[in-house]
Design a protein that fits this description.
The chain is mainly alpha-helical and about 90 residues long. About 55% of the residues lie in helices and about 0% in strands. The protein contains six helices and no strands. It folds into two domains: about 50 residues, 434 Repressor (Amino-terminal Domain); about 35 residues, no CATH class.
Length: about 90
């Protein structure tokens, strides 16, 4: 699974935006966008939310027990049950 900075980078690329263009839309410098995407700085939650929303995504909190199900739904992998807790994988040799 991609890290948050990697996800933000991928989302920006998918929208065909340069760091400069994204920065201008957010009122930030290109350097700040680059630093966030490369993990050189840890942005505040508000900054992550601003970037995410501009890239048509939302930041949500998911209960840890439901994370495998949410990841399965997001990935589009239909061969994985949506109810899996991940424990099945731990018990498999």
């Amino acid at each position: 699974m991609e890290t948050l900075p990697e996800q933000l980078h991928s989302l920006r690329k998918a929208k065909h935006l340069t760091q400069q263009e994204l920065g201008e839309r957010l009122g930030w410098s290109q350097g700040r966008v680059s630093a966030i995407e490369n993990g050189r700085i840890e942005p505040r939650l508000n900054s992550v939310m601003q970037m995410s929303r501009l890239l048509d995504h939302e930041v949500i909190l998911v209960p840890r027990a439901l994370l495998p199900a949410v990841q399965s739904m997001i990935s589009g992998k239909e061969d994985q049950p949506l109810w899996s807790t991940g424990e099945e994988q731990e018990n498999t040799p």
